[in-house]
Amino acid sequence: MLSLQAVTKRFGARLVLNAVSLELGAGEYVAVLGESGIGKSTLLNVIAGLEPVDAGSIAFCGAELTRLDEDAIARLRRGHFGFVFQAFHVLPHLTVAQNVGLPLLLRGRAQAEIDRKAAELAAAVGLAGREASMPRELSGGELQRVAIARALAGDPKLVLADEPTGNLDPENARQVLGLLRAQVKQRGAAGILATHSQAAAAGCDRRYLLSAQGLRSIA
Predict the structure, then answer these.
(1) Could you give the domains of the chain?
(2) Is the pLDDT of residue 106 over 90?
(3) Which distant-in-sequence residues (6+ apart) come within 8 Å of 45 by Cβ?
(4) How crowded is the C-beta side of 2, counted as CA atoms within 13 Å?
(5) How far, rounded to the nearest angstrom, does the alpha carbon of residue 197 sit from its chain's CA centroid?
(6) What is the pLDDT of residues 114-145, one digit of tens each?
(7) Could you give the CA distance from residue 156 to residue 152 in angstroms, rounded to a whole number?
(8) Chain-centre distance of CA 177, in angstroms?
(9) Distance between CA 138 and CA 89 in Å, rounded?
(10) What does the alpha-carbon distance between residue 162 and residue 44 come to, in Å, rounded to a whole number?
(11) Are the CB atoms for 148 and 84 separated by under 8 Å?
(12) Whole-number Å distance between alpha carbons of 173 and 164
């Protein structure tokens, strides 16, 4: 599903990604570990086409991303990628259901389909009955559950999670990580978890360490 070959990225004179290679298939959920500032977020951004690469190639479902124009990459990203961030990015003026259904609304889906999907996903992440709640009424763990449901609303083929439990206490972090992994696998997607936490990475199928030397598999 996803293939990175010798991907290199610089910001000025600083080498951030050093010939990174990675293969990921449907149903696989892997962790990319590394200290803060090493380039984990940059790696996710180049995979999503949000940052250009300086060298190497990125293929997603047979499409070579480095050869697509910005509009084509944006369509691919909207149609096939889901994102979960540390800061939740839940819109404060929308209900749980409206936040979860937002990707479908932006795609022009019928309201009945949006409502059905939002209710299904709210239940899947443990928020059944909370569809009408506002973000201010939710805990941090619940907000991250909303973010996970929203990431899955468009049935993505690839889910990119960037330190999704960085703002949560250990118990909420454990629950959210288990939920994210289960939902990605249940839906036949692939997932990449970028984290500095060994504990967060423990439940992944494979683990990789990102360093100045590149990306390598670790036990």
Answers:
(1) 28-51+77-218 (3.40.50.300)
(2) no
(3) 51
(4) 26
(5) 16
(6) 999 999 999 999 999 999 999 999 999 999 99
(7) 6
(8) 12
(9) 13
(10) 8
(11) yes
(12) 8
Q: One-letter amino acid identity for 204?
A: C
- Structure-block tokens of residue 136: 């201010």
For residue 165, pLDDT beyond 90: no
Looking up tokens 């990319």 gives 32
d(CA 116, CA 151): 16
Q: Say if residue 38's pLDDT is above 90.
A: yes
* pLDDT score at 56: 97
Pairing of strands 14-24, 2-11: antiparallel
What tokens does 41 get? 């977020």
Q: Closest by alpha carbon to 127, among 111, 113, 109, 148?
A: 148
Cα→Cα distances 72→41, 77, 145, 190, 218, Å: 22, 9, 30, 21, 35
DSSP secondary structure, the chain, as one string: -EEEEEEEEEETTEEEEEEEEEEE-TT-EEEEE--TTSSHHHHHHHHTTSS--SEEEEEETTEEGGGS-HHHHHHHHHHHEEEEETT----TTS-HHHHHHHHHHHTT--HHHHHHHHHHHHHHTT-TT-TT--GGGS-HHHHHHHHHHHHHTT--SEEEEESTTTTS-HHHHHHHHHHHHHHHHHTT-EEEEEES-HHHHTTSSEEEEEETTEEEEE-
